[in-house]
Amino acid sequence: MIRTKQQNVRGKTRGFTMLEAIVAVIITSVGLLGVAALQGTAIGHTKKASDRTIAAAQLANLSSRMKSSQSYWQTIPVDFSITIAADGTIAGGAEGAALQAEVTDCFANSCTDPRAMVAHNLRKWVTDGGNVDTSSGFADRLINPTATITRVDNSIPVQLDVILGWDQKAMTAGFNMAAGHAGISTSNYQIRIQP
Description:
alpha+beta; 45% helix
């Protein structure tokens, strides 16, 4: 009997079947999607860490500015609490209104009134943040920031709780979620200062 080549081929088949190739492509695709999701998460965590670093640096800068105006801060009322918006607006009780009313530019004019110096310093803190190049303060680096400064009870010497809050965009699967969706959360950084 003569053996044909077709009979021998069946027993010595080499290569992959179509089903094996499809399974390999599916497994590789799932792995690549996992890597893409991890990348989005890593970017989101990096942004959060960057924002917290900016907040810490800005609050350290505010602490230095407050120490330069100790005569004002040591005489604030017990119920002192103000909020500073990203545009430099100061609000909160009678003292907040008095600070908001101060419009003296202490760089252009000499400030002798401690309240005028504090109002000027708070506005400059928002807009330039004490940067050497004065290009931007926290208002340009964080999303919708606000700062709240509150006196701690009857503490002597005066102690202040300072909270810098901002909106944080969530990163999901590598895609930045648009503002106004569920991907926005509020973050804050708080310190206690003794000017």
